[in-house]
Amino acid sequence: MTTQKSVLAVIMGGGRGTRLHPLTQERCKPAVPLAGKYRLVDIPISNCLNSDINRMFLLTQFQTASLHRHVTSTYNFDPFGGGFVDILSAEQTEKGSDWYQGTADAVRRNLIHFRAYPHELVLILSGDQLYRMDFRKIIEQHLATRADVSIAAIPFPVSKVEGLGLMQVHDDLTIERFVEKPKDPAIIAGLTLSPALEAKLQSPSKEKHCLASMGIYVFNRDVLAEALDTTATDFGKEIIPGLLGKKKLCAHIFEGYWEDIGTVRAFFDANLALAQPLPPFNFFEPNAPIYTQDHYLPASKLNKCAIDHVVIGDGSILTDSALKHCVLGIRSFIGEGCVLEDTVVMGSDFYEGETQLAANTARGQPHLGIGSRCRIKGAIIDKNTRIGDDCVLIADGKADGVYANGGVIIRDGVLVVPKGAVLPPRTVV
Predict the structure, then answer these.
(1) Contacts of 17 (CB under 8 A, 6+ apart)
(2) Topology adopted by domain 3-273
(3) What pLDDT was estimated at residue 362?
(4) Across residues 187-196, what is the average pLDDT?
């Protein structure tokens, strides 16, 4: 069977996304905007398409409206290729009516939907990671080693493995041991790579490495069904450790860029990194493009602006402002005399017409976007916000908490103006 006919991809949409709040206040994690014009969900879907996998199920349950709109308007397949991206939300059935209890529980409840399609392998992916990976390589290794389960693993220096699921592997890459987020230095030391595997790494260093799970799994169809015929709710904590010694588990070593977008700080840093001259993740890779919705917007317009390491989405308007190390989403509006540094502006979903603008002005409501003479640093400005003139929003040294009557939230040291918030002129945080 070809890859298209033998593999089903299952993308985990995540839980409530509490660590990404307030970015997940009105949307689920896969729908969070990324890099000016994309959504997080575009990453795993594009990786699948570039790997000749075109049958995907997206499992989610919280705040799915914007995700539905994005996926249905973006990923339309011709009727002859059999491709699809099917969103499966938690639903009431004869067997239960509660939410998904974890990653394994979500897959278990949807096995009935997967069975309708011919397949031999199930590729399980996370919906909130930034990486580019050719899944054909892990599938080829999975078949060559006759593994029951293959786990994508990335080498991390011992000093940076906190909070990661680690595995101990033999030189033939079979997995001997799996420990979810160990903290004991002695346990971590026992999970380091062998000298033979260390020597094979593309970027060897003096510090020893551990293999960390990326949350990417390839299961044989029957093995997945057998493993889920339990009450286990999570792959990393229960399913994978429970299969050790019973099934053949192999690690697939991946040495490219990989970032888990699990917190506001991780999201902020990953976005701003894209404004670097040589970003760690390259959206300009011609042979493995990242797909997203085409909004058919005009080119952005900049008038008398000073721009230094800035990504600007389509349809934006900037006037007489200075921006340094920023990422601007589509339809971003920046008024005159603004100074922005280390800031992510997600833009807007629409433009204001003259009639609407006049009505908003009469009510004293600021223009959609960022008003004149604002100073913003270390911030995420979510979609459809209205920031009045002469506002000062700077996160430096301020404690996490709620400011400006709820119009500003500082989380992980990052100042966030939530989606649709309105800040009056001369607001200072």
Answers:
(1) 23, 24, 28, 29, 32, 62, 128
(2) Spore Coat Polysaccharide Biosynthesis Protein SpsA; Chain A (3.90.550)
(3) 79
(4) 92
